[in-house]
From TrEMBL:
<dbReference type="GO" id="GO:0005737">
    <property type="term" value="C:cytoplasm"/>
</dbReference>
<dbReference type="InterPro" id="IPR027417">
    <property type="entry name" value="P-loop_NTPase"/>
</dbReference>
<dbReference type="InterPro" id="IPR003495">
    <property type="entry name" value="CobW/HypB/UreG_nucleotide-bd"/>
</dbReference>
<dbReference type="InterPro" id="IPR011629">
    <property type="entry name" value="CobW-like_C"/>
</dbReference>
<dbReference type="InterPro" id="IPR051316">
    <property type="entry name" value="Zinc-reg_GTPase_activator"/>
</dbReference>
<dbReference type="Pfam" id="PF02492">
    <property type="entry name" value="cobW"/>
</dbReference>
<protein>
    <submittedName>
        <fullName>GTP-binding protein</fullName>
    </submittedName>
</protein>
<dbReference type="Pfam" id="PF07683">
    <property type="entry name" value="CobW_C"/>
</dbReference>
<feature type="domain" description="CobW C-terminal">
    <location>
        <begin position="211"/>
        <end position="294"/>
    </location>
</feature>
Length: 309
């Protein structure tokens, strides 16, 4: 049997960092990783080699949405044919995984699969904001079997207490653990009860219409300092701002969560350069804020529009 664990969590909760730590809990095991995410920086290839892992990536939509479900089932089916000991799925931060128990119950499609449960990462600093404005975070928690409150080093005791209250009000029946930098404690998995599968046909799911996705295309004439000042003008009104940019001949990964700006040098070959994705939701005036910011740098922005569906 192949044991399968699913990792969920809203944009920027720290899923990939956690996954790198989680993989190490299975020394000597054959591991297959399936990552579903836009613009994934990628799990360290050397780490995958060290633990003997195989990696599949599914982009351009949630694996639980009707637009990508067939692809996910195809990838999972092929993974099972190699009979790995453990399969780890990192779901998109925008995913609605409420179908997961029905999908995993399809024994004809997934023979030899044992679904161990869902681990949901929660950003201790930003949770209250996304809980109010993003429907999918409630749905991710609803199917979770353990909650890991991440980034507690960035949150105050009052914020941590408030997040716990919100989560417990939603799911009082599952354990909550606190951590930073995606670290997982010894014995936490023992507190996770294996869920019962639901032998019903998975429901058709579509994208969450409360989510807004924009593409901001910039010129390479920005300096890193100018880009920071530009992006910081609208960060508070977004969930995430992410993309690869080339500024004055140098390539960087731009990855901003909440009001935290991050721009780091990037050496690998990339596609979609200088196309920045801006994600927001109901009640967040991201489009208006971006347009105001563009007025300060009109010659450095090529286009700003809704992302194509």
């Amino acid at each position: 049997m192949s044991e399968l664990y699913m990792i969920t969590g809203f944009l920027g909760a720290g899923k990939t960092t956690f996954l790198k730590q989680f993989i190490r809990l299975f020394p000597g095991k054959r591991i297959h990783v399936i990552v579903n995410e836009y613009g994934k920086e990628g799990i360290d290839g050397q780490l995958l080699k060290e633990v003997g892992s195989v990696l599949d990536e599914i982009n351009n939509g949630s694996i639980f949405c009707s637009c990508r479900l067939d692809k996910f089932e195809e990838v999972l089916g092929k993974a099972l044919k190699s009979q790995p000991d453990v399969i780890l799925i990192e779901a998109s931060g925008l995913s609605n995984p409420t179908n997961v128990k029905k999908i995993m119950a399809q024994e004809d499609k997934f023979p030899g699969l044992s679904y161990m449960g869902s681990i949901c990462l929660v950003d201790a600093k930003r949770f209250e904001k996304v809980y109010r404005t993003a429907t999918v975070i409630k749905k991710q928690i609803s199917v979770s079997d353990i909650i890991i409150l991440n980034k507690t080093d960035l949150a105050s005791p009052e914020e941590i207490s408030r997040v716990k209250e919100l989560v417990k009000a939603h799911r009082p029946d599952i354990p909550i653990f606190e951590t930073s930098f995606g670290r997982i404690g010894d014995g936490w998995l023992k507190e996770m009860k294996q869920p019962e599968l639901v032998k019903e046909k998975p429901e058709i799911q579509t994208k969450d219409i409360t989510l807004r996705s924009f593409v901001l295309t910039i010129r390479d004439t920005f300096t890193p300092y100018e880009l920071q000042k530009f992006v910081e003008m609208f960060l508070d009104d977004t969930y995430r701002v992410k993309g690869f940019v080339r500024l004055q001949g140098e390539t960087y990964l731009l990855d901003c969560v909440g009001n935290l700006f991050h721009l780091t040098p990037y050496q690998e070959e990339v596609h979609g350069i200088n196309e920045i994705v801006v994600l927001a939701g109901n009640g967040l005036p991201a489009a208006k804020s971006v347009k105001e910011a563009i007025k300060w740098y009109p010659d450095k922005v090529i286009d700003f529009s809704m992302a194509k569906k």
